[in-house]
Amino acid sequence: MVDFNTNNTTSISAETTTMKYDDRRAELQAFDDTKTGVKGLIDAGITKVPQMFIRPLEQRIDNSDTNDDKRLDIPVIDLADVIDDVKRKVIIDRVRQASETIGFFQVVNHGIPSEVMDEIVEGVRKFHAQEGEERKKYYTREKTRRFVYYSNFDLFQAPFTNWRDTLICMMAPNPPNPQDFPEMLREIQIEYSKHVMKLGSLLFELLSEALGLKPSYLNEIGCCEGLTIIGNYYPPCPEPELTLGIARHCDNDFLTVLRQDDYISGLQVLHQNHWFDVPPVPGALLINIGDLLQASLYFHGLTEHRVLANKEGPRVTVAGFFSTHLQPSTRVFGPIKELVTDQNPPLYRATTVKDFVMAFHAKGATAVSSLAYLRL
Prior knowledge:
Belongs to the iron/ascorbate-dependent oxidoreductase family. By secondary structure, the protein is α+β, with helices and mostly antiparallel strands. It is built from nine helices and 14 strands.
């Protein structure tokens, strides 16, 4: 057992991969009670990965399932000429092709100033660089609060803990009180969110047109109504081969806009049963089709991805999740009737965003997609 309040950690054999339920629960609770996350372990000077993070041998990263022969061709789409009718058609074709085959694409000239993107990443970094006593003030598992700091949303559900800490900021549809946020994020959080909302509206227009719908369709049905900004912080890991930054999963939203770390890679995408590295592209944002959009449309099946742990760090990323999350709403989303035909029958039943997110939280970030919950 690990005492998370001291530097005295019991050396744990890498071959020991199972724990009795009660022992694991006690370790999880002791970790959560520190209210300082994985960063707190690093601050305490640990040199071994605690047992709660260690995955069984068959789930560890040994590169045998990673395709090193070639990079996955995730398109980089230039949005500079999106207002030109001819060039817009080319952009829409590229968005369609990427969405149908991979579920990911990158965008440049997206309208978000580089200094704004840098400042939001630096704000997340500064928050975690604070002393533990300062971070504790925001630590909570009350998922409906406007600003949440914790480690692993599925800490008590998942079979193994991920090597990361997270900030969650609910920015829309109800604008937050700036005083809800720590000072280093107060202004930039609002500024960055405004830019992401504008970009999201444009992306939903392009996706609508890619499906043969009117440009405003996805925005009008509410895909761009909610926005949550998530700051993920991956501290350096002393034994990265034993754990993961984030386990294999699909995003439980309509669309994700990810600002990767400029210097430290770690993101991998699953394609044709192989994992591919997705190194950052300077100035680009990575776009990911989420499960809620998959449930309504006919794009690529599952956009599964994971994040590796790394000896280097910290790795800091900022993701914009387009979803109303757990906020109350009676709006129901289901297969779009204009796309349903005898050849393309509906695959999933309708749901509210809140019910879908609750199902995701109940199972945790696992390889089992939340779409299984909606399958007809």
